[in-house]
Write a structure and sequence with these properties.
Spore Coat Polysaccharide Biosynthesis Protein SpsA, Chain A; 7-stranded mixed β-sheet; two-stranded antiparallel sheet
Length: 245
């Protein structure tokens, strides 16, 4: 009986985290990549990794960086010594694929990969736990998302309203996005071969015809893409209790 119990434990899928951070932050208009801008005196990426490293069920965290990125190694590696570094690619999906290929020697095909944006520093552990709890028996995976609250309009090229959309049918996709290792790797490999650029991991999985589940998360899981987002993120970090008084 002890052998059977041990064997069952060994067959449980493991959880790996992958953080694509190879972007140069062009949309933000700053010289410093957005993951290294400061919030309450700490890098955006530091807030993100702080949340992930506190999740004790993760086997390892893989951080995918731009080939010319020396900042992490110089200023942050000592704070996060267990984070594994991988070189990124031209697009987000290339960076995630590089991270998955690195994990291929460590992860089993049925393991879970948790992909989280480097520039989402306001993530709460309870949202990650909710995502995992809702998807643990799923064969494919899913994403955290927030339901649209404002009225949505569809316009034509002249910016004239064509239609008012139903809010309850639309969601703002966020991260983490959680997928089985073999499925995500296959989806990204096929996307590259076909010339399809996926804006997130879910889009790649959808493109191969597999169902992607939605798990409702907090709307304050903000992604920093503009200067205005920095001020809002500082406020949210304080409100979420992540900043020491």
């Amino acid at each position: 009986m002890p052998e059977s119990s041990t064997q069952t434990e060994q067959q449980k899928p493991k959880y790996w985290a992958l953080v694509p951070a190879a972007g140069l932050g062009r949309r933000l208009g700053a010289k410093t990549p957005k993951q290294y801008l400061k919030l309450h005196g700490k890098e955006v990426l530091s807030w993100t990794l702080q949340t992930l490293t506190a999740l004790d069920f993760l086997e390892k965290i893989v951080l995918v960086l731009h080939p010319e990125d020396n900042y992490f190694a110089t200023y942050m590696a000592q704070e996060f010594p267990d984070v594994l570094l991988v070189m990124g690619g031209d697009e987000r999906q290339d960076s995630v694929a590089n991270g998955l290929e690195f994990l291929a020697g460590l992860a089993d095909s049925n393991d879970w990969v948790l992909v989280h944006d480097a520039a989402r520093p306001c993530l709460l552990a309870k949202d990650v736990n909710k995502l995992i709890s809702c998807l643990k028996e799923d064969k494919v995976g899913g994403i955290l998302a927030a339901q649209v609250k404002d009225t949505l309009k569809r316009s034509d090229e002249s910016l004239t309203v064509v239609k008012t959309l139903k809010r309850n049918e639309h969601w703002l996709a966020a991260t983490p996005q959680l997928f089985r290792f073999n499925i995500l790797l296959d989806a990204l490999t096929r996307a590259k071969k076909s010339g399809f650029t996926a804006t997130d991991e879910a889009a790649a999985v959808e493109a191969i015809g597999l169902p992607v589940k939605i798990v409702e998360g907090r709307s304050d899981n903000l992604k920093i893409t503009s200067q205005e987002d920095l001020a809002l993120a500082e406020f949210l970090l304080k409100q979420l209790g992540k900043v020491n008084a």
